[in-house]
Amino acid sequence: MTSLDKPPIGTSTVKWRFPDIHPEGRKYVLIAAAIALVSLWVWDVLTWPLIFVTLGVAAFFRDPVRVTPVEDGVLVAPADGLVTMIQRVSLPPELAGPHALGTEPMVRVSIFMSVFDVHVNRTPITGTIRHVIYISGKFMNADLDKASDENERQHMVVEDRDGLRIGFTQIAGLVARRIVAFVKPGDMVVGGQRIGLIRFGSRVDIFLPEEYGAQVILGQRTIAGETIIARRGIQNVAGVAQ
C-alpha cells in the first residue's frame, strides 16, 4: 500500500449493522417467534403473518447506538419521536416544590412516540438522578394534553454538577402498558445514557428551565440522545404557546 492508498489519519472503516434488541424486549421477541413456529403445526396459514409480527416486535425493542453531543449548556432529546407541543405550563405536583423544579411555570416540550419509533429513553443531561416517581393511571391517547395528568406516568429529575435540575416525564399511551426505569435515585448518569423504556407507543415531556431556550419546533422529529432540544442562554427558535 502506497502513501496515497492509506486512509487519512484519524479515520477508520465503519460498517452498518442491525441495531441490538434491548434485553427488556428479548423475551417478547422469543415468545412471538415461538408462537410463529408452533403455527407451522397448528395452522400454517398464520405462519407468515406471525413472522412479520415477530419482526415488528424486534423492531420495536431495537436499541441503536447514539452519539451524544459533547457540549456544555445543551439538553438532548430524551426520546425519539415527533414534537407535538411546546407550551408554558404549570408543573405537575410531583415535580413542583423546592426539592424538585420549583413553583414557577416552565416550558414543556412534548415528544410523541409512535409504535415505529425507538422506545428506549435517555437522560437529557449529565448528573445525578434525584427523583423517580411512578404514578398509575389511565391509558388514553398520549397525544392529548390531559394525558400528562391522567395517564400512567413516571417522573424523573436529574441534577447537574452546578445544581441545575431538569425534569422529564414518561407517559404511557393507548397501547403502552408498562413504563420501565433503568435508574434509581442517587444514580450518576451521563448525557444520552439510557434511563428507561415505555412499551408500545407513548410520550415523553421535558420541562425547560428559564435559562434554556427550546431549539426544536412543532412537527420536528427528534432522536433520543442526539438532537439538541434546548440551549442555555438562547431564545426559543419559535413562539411558545402560553
From TrEMBL:
Tell me the InterPro entries matching this sequence.
Answer: PS_Dcarbxylase, PSD-A
Annotated site residue numbers, Cleavage (non-hydrolytic): 201-202
Q: GO terms for CC?
A: plasma membrane
Q: Which Pfam families match?
A: PS_Dcarbxylase
Any stretches that span the bilayer, and where are they? 28-61
The subcellular localization recorded is: Cell membrane
The name of this protein is Phosphatidylserine decarboxylase proenzyme
Give residues where Pyruvic acid (Ser) occurs. Answer: 202
Cofactor(s) named in the record: pyruvate
Per the Swiss-Prot or TrEMBL record, the active site comprises 202
The Enzyme Commission number assigned here is 4.1.1.65
**Native source organism of the sequence:** Sphingomonas pokkalii
Instruction: Report if keyword Lipid metabolism is assigned.
Output: yes
The membrane-topology field of this record reads: Peripheral membrane protein
Gene Ontology terms, MF aspect: phosphatidylserine decarboxylase activity
Reactions mediated catalytically: a 1,2-diacyl-sn-glycero-3-phospho-L-serine + H(+) = a 1,2-diacyl-sn-glycero-3-phosphoethanolamine + CO2
Question: Which protein family is it in?
Answer: Belongs to the phosphatidylserine decarboxylase family. PSD-A subfamily.
Gene, per the UniProt record: psd
Q: Please cite one Gene Ontology biological process associated with this protein.
A: phosphatidylethanolamine biosynthetic process
